[in-house]
Structures are given as C-alpha cells and as structure tokens.
C-alpha cells in the first residue's frame, strides 16, 4: 500500500497566487554554492507546471489527444540576490494576462521575505506541428476565475 510520503510534493493556490516550495540542492549550484542562473528558469518551470496541475489543467491529456501543448515563447528574468545551497525557496506565480492562444505569468523566487529573482514568462499554446492555436476555452475560463480572485484581493 502506498504511503502519503510516496507522492510528490504539490504546491497550491493561496487566493490568486500559486506557491511552490523547494530546497536548493548541491546540483542546483555552482562551485561557490550559489544557484546557477539558468536553474532559476527550471525552478520557475516546475512551479508553472505545478500551478497548471493545481488549476485542473490537464496538459498531458491535451498533448496525448493531439490538441496542443504550451511552449515558452518569451522569458524575461531579473536576478536580484543569489540563492545558496540549502536555502528554502518559494516560487510565487501569478497570472498576468490571458489571451486566446497564450498566457503570461509573473513569477517571484523568494527566500522568506527576500526576492532572489523575478520573471515574466509567456507560454503560447501550439498545435503539435508548432503553430499557434487557441487554447481550450475551459482553460481560459479557469485562468479568468483565478485572475478574478486577484481583483477581489485588491
């Protein structure tokens, strides 16, 4: 019988923000024990994938059905202060914009109250041959509901 400890960690939504925690391991760092710059993109990717799961978006099912898949079309990252070996980080993801064929997500890599890095990622929804196409209508509805939580907070 599977133990609850056998399941992978999942983040979750706190109102309109998705929060995903991770620890910096040796493999994430350079020889000085500082997170290698490209690994922030990996951290953000894991958090975005987890955010979609938490929202009920079935990327795998959509891919296997031949409908389409998300691909990063644009990424902007600003590095503020280095994360280090052993740090506990939280990636906070917020939906900024939802369009017919894309979604823009703002992400902050936090160590406690300190901002380590922030990024803005645009993910385009593509057909399996790489052409932009409208993302499933129900996904747009889910994203709009999440964004409305943000507006209610303000």
Automatic annotation (TrEMBL):
SUPFAM superfamilies: Thioesterase/thiol ester dehydrase-isomerase (SSF54637). It comes from the Bacteria. CDD domains: 4HBT. InterPro entries: 4-hydroxybenzoyl-CoA_TE, HotDog_dom_sf, YbgC/YbaW. Gene3D superfamilies: Hotdog Thioesterase (3.10.129.10). Pfam families: 4HBT_2. Keywords: Hydrolase. Belongs to the 4-hydroxybenzoyl-CoA thioesterase family. This is Tol-pal system-associated acyl-CoA thioesterase.
